[in-house]
Design goal:
Elements lengths: L1 H14 L4 H22 L8 H13 L4 H20 L26 H8 L7 H16 L3 H6 L5 E2 L4 E6 L2 E6 L2 H18 L19 H14 L8 H14 L4 H8 L4 H24 L4
Antiparallel strand pairs: 1-2, 2-3
Helix pairs in contact: 1-2, 2-4, 3-4, 6-8, 6-10, 10-12, 11-12
Length: 296
């Protein structure tokens, strides 16, 4: 069983060139199913039946998992079994004619432009850590990149003269411009403070932690939560909140969907179109407010 999962991991990474985040998500779902199947039915993944799949999804529902989480697990299993068939390990997939209700899809939370300004002003730039944090926050909002893409950046991915970063995700490589304040923050960090933070001068990571090695997802998450607290912003801010805010603010200021899709690295424009609903909702509320509020 483990050999099959390891083979699938190698296929995702080396053949499909999936991002590390995608590989991690797929494998987590598959391993959890494999452990459940072994403990409850004493079966290997190659012996699973359609009923086993249905029972497992029902178990996830009983645990209170969301429709989106259950749907993601089903997709992970479908892809895994499709690989086993194409590789000759199985003749038929047990994941067929199974559908789950994702439930109502909630629009992501975004920050207002004022809240963004407040968040970006929180790092106290008196030492290397403050300048690093300032550069990270500015870069996230300037580019809309994912947190996995942020921590994967190397110094060679930055062109200060042109004011762009090169961002790689799986097969895709895109160049994203920086607005002046973000470029200034990144320039100061790279030229004056980064070298004082790295433990080894051969380290190529753009952003490093307190011990001088590459910043982790968890490390950036903690930093972001700290500044949410100091800014007294009540919304629950995650790295993706900055990505969503970047997208909505660009659309509100006239960006076209095609350009936004390219900047965000979406393979399907339907992922980008989600933000048009948010912009339309915001503009409608703004129009009602300006029309009806006595001081507007």
């Amino acid at each position: 069983m483990l050999d099959l999962i390891c083979a699938y991991e190698n296929y995702l990474s080396k053949v499909k060139l999936a991002s590390s985040n995608t590989v991690s998500s797929y494998l987590r779902d598959i391993r959890q199913f494999a452990q459940w199947l072994q403990s409850t039915e004493d079966l290997s993944v190659v012996d699973a039946t359609q009923q086993n799949i249905r029972d497992y999804l029902s178990e996830l529902e009983a645990q209170g998992r969301s429709g989106a989480t259950i749907s993601r697990n089903l997709a992970s299993l479908k892809n895994f079994y499709a690989y086993l068939i194409s590789s000759g390990f199985l003749e038929q997939s047990p994941v067929y004619d199974i559908h789950v209700d994702r439930g109502e899809k909630k629009l992501p939370q975004i920050l207002t432009e004022r809240e963004i300004e407040l968040l970006l002003s929180q790092p106290v730039c008196v030492d290397a850590k403050g300048f690093r944090d300032k550069a990270m926050l500015e870069l996230m909002y300037a580019t809309g990149i994912r947190v996995s893409e942020l921590i994967d950046l190397d110094v060679d991915d930055v062109n200060l003269e042109q004011g762009i970063i090169k961002c790689s995700s799986g097969k895709k490589v895109r160049s994203i411009p920086l607005y002046p304040a973000a470029l200034r923050a990144l320039t100061v960090y790279m030229r004056e403070f980064r070298d004082t933070l790295v433990a080894d001068q051969s380290e190529r990571a753009l952003f490093v932690n307190v011990i001088g090695s590459r910043m982790s997802r968890q490390g950036f998450w903690k930093i972001l939560k700290h500044y949410q607290t100091t800014a007294h912003i009540e919304k629950d801010i995650t790295p993706h909140t900055l990505r969503h805010s970047f997208a909505v603010h660009l659309l509100e200021n006239g960006a076209d969907l095609g350009s936004l899709q390219e900047l965000m690295g979406h393979s399907d424009i339907s992922s980008t179109q989600m933000y048009t609903h948010m912009v339309g909702q915001n503009q409608k509320l703004k129009a009602v407010y300006e029309k009806c509020h006595p001081k507007a």
